[in-house]
Amino acid sequence: MLQILFIAVALILFVVAYFTTARDRYLTRMEFFVRLLILLVFGIGISFLASSQAGNSDLGALVVLICGLLVGYFSQRFHIMRLQDLRWSPFLALVSLVPFVNFVFVFVLLFVPGKPKVNSEIFS
């Protein structure tokens, strides 16, 4: 039952990230890398701070839950923005929800160069 709940929450986060990401916003490889590092540091730091309080109160558990949802949301959003730079389907961001495949997928997003912009995109 817990696995189904996890999958449902992950899919809801993807749908929200998909519909709140502007279609004209892209992330270059460096921007994607920096944002993932910031997200990683934020997620680890908040998790360590909140996990020390999670056993003591419901407030610590709630903070861990909220921070986990925020990290999941922004992670999906950054994947979608990077996929838009590559001119790939944003639905490929769902691949990042598959265990172990997500590591390979992030490295692909980090190392594949983006597609060049056409003139209408540069001057708009």
What do these coordinates show?
- With 124 residues, the chain is mainly alpha-helical.
- It has helices at 2-20, 29-54, 58-86, 101-111, 119-122.
- α1 (2-20) crosses α3 and α2 (29-54) runs antiparallel to α3 (58-86).
Summarize this, please?
With 124 residues, the protein is mostly helical.
State Rg: 16 Å
Mean model confidence by pLDDT = 79
What fraction of residues sit in β-strands? under 5%
Measured as a percent range, the helix fraction is over 70%
User: What structural class do you assign from the helix and strand content?
Assistant: mainly alpha
Model regions low in confidence, pLDDT < 50 over at least 5 residues: none
Helix count, per DSSP? 5
Note the gap between the termini.
48 Å
Order of helices and strands: HHHHH
Number of strands: 0
Q: Given the C-alpha coordinates, what overall shape results? A: elongated
Could you describe the largest sheet, including whether it forms a barrel?
none
Could you list some keywords that capture this structure?
124 residues; 5 helices; single chain; 72% helix; mainly alpha
